[in-house]
Fold this sequence. Notes:
Elements lengths: L1 H24 L39 H13 L1 H22 L4 E4 L2 E6 L8 E13 L6 H67 L5 H35 L29 H4 L1 H22 L4 E12 L11 E10 L7 H67 L5 H35 L12
Antiparallel strand pairs: 1-3, 2-3, 3-4, 4-5
Helix pairs in contact: 1-7, 2-4, 3-4, 4-5, 4-7, 4-9, 7-8, 8-9
Amino acid sequence: MHRLTSIVLVxxxxxxxxxxxxxxxxxxxxxxPAPPTFKELGNWKPSEPGDQLSKGKWWERFNDPxxxxxxxxxxxxxxxxxxxxxxxxxxxxxxxxxxxxxxPTVSAGPSFTRSRIPAVPNARTSNTYSAAIDASWExxxxxxxxxxxxxxxxxxxxxxADLESVRLAAQAQLANDYFLxxxxxxLLQILNTTVTSYQDALDVARARYAAGLDSxxxxxxxxxxxxxxxxxxxxxxxxxxxxxxxIAVLTGQPSSGFELAAHVIELSPPPxxxxxxxxxxxxxxxxxAEERAVMQANAQIGVGKKAFFPSLLLTASGGFQxxxxxxWFNWPSRVWSLGASLTETIFDGGSRRAAVQQYxxxxxxxxxxxxxxxxxxxxQVEDNLAAVxxxxxxxxxxxxxxxxxxxxxxxADVRYRSGIDxxxxxxxxxxxxxxxxxxxxxxxxxxxxxxxxxxEALGGGWDVSQLHD
Length: 469
């Protein structure tokens, strides 16, 4: 009988080792077709060494001290980042709980009992003093706990990558809002300069009307042009205030006590080393999170398979027990016990098999999510590469249009002052110049926004080597 039992245990052990080995082997990163180069890069951008890729503080490429200060504040005080950090700590605590199952559980329980049994002849009251230490341990013979630890470890890495995704998204949003705010400062400068020019034009129209050289219609037209532009300048302040409030929230500050002084900057994106498409698999935290989710799902399949094997429980108890406090810890008062139990589910109606099938389906879903994330990443890089490249050409053409509009206005003003053309020609030229200047600013704003989004699409300053549990 003992020999048969030994043979059964050996066979069970070998089977469990085979499945544990299969589960530990895991699966490679799911394949996703990655092109050798980005299509929208073309010949627009010369190749640069990969070691020039942004590391860490990518926003410093824009050489703006105010933006640097705000990004540093965001990394400390942004509440979405703080919440994501807490999620990482929770995942690590869960992993520690799972690992603790590899070790025995030990408890101590001193007790005192005073009792009396009246049905016994010559019944008397008795005391019982007990001090015992109990230990139980379920050896991970079949790898169930180890499989759970592996799944938990990947779960921690998922939460770490999610944290970096939240951080990168907040950093990019802050940079976007900051440059949009500065674009409003640039717009206000354009409008204020235009208002000054329109005021001068109005003074000329009034002087010509007073001298009998022009009609009051020209004065009214000049006044309309001036007031309309003044209202436009005032309205630009509304959008600037909203961007300022958004920046306050991103940096974890109340909007009421936050203020950024107006400052005109050149909205010009820095050179951005792009690398090759396969770099995204290492540099995007969202891709890393999906990849680790695939590994976690695969490890969970191993956990489900372990349910087909028995559970071995070892127990031990020892201590002292006596009816007299004086003899409590004497050697003859010692008590002890040892035990072992092996539990195996004989029939569960297919529950465990269904659980494994569920984990397999979940794994297939994570593989699809991973591939979709990679494809979207390629799309985002291509979109923003195209935007930065095409807008660079558009900006050159629009700057030329601004210069043409400025020459047209100068000519129209000279001809009006000379009495050759009506003031309507001046208004038309003024409107064309202001529209051209606003369009040029809009294109620059779009380009620098696209450059920030391109950096975000490339993974910012993060890489997979920072991923750990």
